[in-house]
Amino acid sequence: MAALLEVENLSVRYGDLMALRSASLSVDEGEVVCIIGPNGAGKSTTLAAIAGGVRPVSGDIRLEGRSIVGRRPEHIARLRLSLVPEGRHIFGTLTVEENLQIGGYMLGDRAAARAGMERLLGHFPRLRERLRYPAARLSGGEQQMLAVARAVMTRPRLLLVDEPSLGLAPRIIDQIYEILLELRQREKLTLLINEQSSARILKFADRIYVLRGGAVQVEGRAADLRDGEAIHRAYFGFGTQDSAPAETAA
Amino acid sequence: MHVFVARHQTPVLLIVLLGAAVAISEVGGLDALQVTLVEMLIRVLVVVGLYVFIGNSGVISFGQVGFMCIGAYAAGWATAEPSFKQVMLQGLPELLQENQFSFPLAMAGAILLPAIVALLFGFAILRLNGIAASIATFAFLIIVNSIYSNWDSVTAGVSSLIGIPTPVGPWVALAFAAGGILVAHLFQMSRYGLLLRATREDGVAAKASGVHSVRMRLLAFVLSAALVGAGGGLYAQFLGILTVDTFYLSLSFITIAMLVVGGMGSLTGAVAGVIAVTVIVQLLRFGERGFPVGSALFKLPVGSGELGLGLLLALILIFRPNGLSGGKELALIRGPREMMPEGGAVAGARALQDDSNAVA
Predict the structure, then answer these.
(1) pTM of the prediction?
(2) How high is the ipTM of this complex?
(3) Is B225 part of any domain?
(4) Residues of B in contact with A92 (CB under 8 A)
(5) In this complex, which of A102, A139, A142 lies closest to B209 when CB atoms are compared?
(6) What is the pLDDT of residues B64-107, one digit of tens each?
(7) Which of A113, A206, B155, B272 has the maximum number of C-beta atoms within 10 A of its C-beta?
C-alpha cells in the first residue's frame, strides 16, 4: 500500500536561494512524523510546499498516490490535508466559536461539524470557556491551541503543524503536545510536525527527518535516534564525540 | 426566541429609527426637509451597499459609486420619456427607445446591470490585495465616468438625461433603505459573510481552512454593486434628471467619508455615518445661508459644508479611528453572542503576551 503522503525529490527555490534540495519524505496512515532542523533548514518550506503555499521547481507530492503539486492551497485544504501555519494565524476579531466554525464549514455537513466541535472542545477546555471571546484576546498559547483546533475541525486525513512551540513558554508547549497526543489517540490523527527542539520530539514522534541546508541529513525511527548523536551530527555537521569541529559549513 | 431576537435586533432597530425620522417629517409637515430626507435614505442604501463589500472584505473600494452611475442610467433608460429617448439616445435598443417602463422594472434593471458588471469586473480584479485592489476600483470609477461621459448616443454624454418620472418619495426611499439593511444583515450573519471576514483577518489561515477568498469577495462585490445600483436607480427617479458627473469623485468621497465616520466595522456604523454626516453638512449649509441672531444676520463663509466634512473626518480618524460605532452593532438585548470589539483594544491584546501569566 502506498503511503498517505509521499514527497519525492522536492526542490524549492526563492530567487537565488535553494530552500529545498531534492528532499524526500513519506508519512504513513496513523503515523506521527517530525521534521527537525535549525533555522533556515527548509522545514517551513517543506510544509508550505505540501500545503500549496509555495510552488516547487521540481519533485512530486502525492496524497494517497495522487499528485497534488501545483494545486492552490484552498483546494489542498479541501482534500483534508490541513496546515496549522507557523505563528498562530487566527482570525483575530472573530470569536473563538466562529474561528472553529470556519474550519467546520469545509465539511459541508452542519450536524457533523457541530458534533465535531463539541467533541473537539472536550480536548480544549480552555477554548470552551472562551467561545464568545474575540480570538485576538486569547493568550499566545491559547491562540496556538485555537489554530490547531480549527485545523482539526476540518477532520484532516493529515495534519501539518508548523513549529507549534514557537515563542511559547515550556509549560504551554507541554500542554500543546499533550493535546496533540490526545488527538492522535482519540481522533486517529496522522501528523507531520516541524520543530527546532529535538528532545521533546524524540519522545513524541514515531519517525524523524533531520533537515539542514534544504536537504534531508538523517531519517529514522525516533527510538533509534534517541541517543542524540546522529541528530547532533546532522544538526551541527559534527558529533559530540568529535574533538573539534573540522568543518562547520554545510 | 430570545436568541432569534438578539440575533436580528440590529436591522430592526435601524429601520425603526429611519422610519421614525420619515414619520416625524411627514406628520410635522416639514416639507423643507423632505429633499434632504430622501437623499439621506438613498445614501443609506448606497453606504450600506459599500459596507457589504468594504466592511466584510477589508478591501477599500473607491469605485462603488460607478455602480451607482450604472444603476441610475439603467433606470433612466427604462423610464425616460420615449420622445426624449428617440431624439437624444438613438444608440439605445429600440425596445428601450420606444417604451416607458414601470418603476419596478426600472429598479430591476438598476439592480441587475450593476451586478452583472460587478461580476465581470470583480472577476478580473479581486485577486489583488490591499492597496492594489483599491487602486483598481478607483480606475473602475474613472472608466465608468469616461464611458458615460462620451458615449453620446446612449447616455446623452455631458448633457443631461431628462424626462424621468419621479415616483420616489420618503416612504419609497425608506422601503429600499430598509431592504438594503436587511440584505446586508443577512449577508453578514450568513456563512459567506463569516468566511469573507475570515479572509479579511488572515489570508493565510483562510486558505489553510479551505476558504476561496476570491469567490467570497466576488459574492460580496456583486451584492454590494446591486445595492449601490439600486441606490442609483432611486436617485435617478428622485431627481428626474441625470448627469454623469453627479456620480464621480465628490459623491465617491462623501459616501466613503460616511462609512469611515460611522465605522466600517459594523452595519450600525454604515447607517450612523450617513445620518451624522448628513446632519452636520445640512447644519453647516444652513449656516452658510445665514440665520438671524438678534438683529444681526449670522452667516458662515461659503464652503463651510465641505470644510466641516473634512474636519469631521480628520477628528474621527484621530479620536475614534473605528468610527462612531467603534465596530459595534446597535442592540437593546444582550445576546449570547458578545459584540466583537475591533481595532485598538484587539491590536493591543494581539501584541506579545506573557503566556505563563495568562494561562495561570
Answers:
(1) 0.88
(2) 0.86
(3) yes
(4) 201-202, 346, 350
(5) A102
(6) 999 999 999 999 999 999 999 999 999 999 999 999 999 999 99
(7) B155
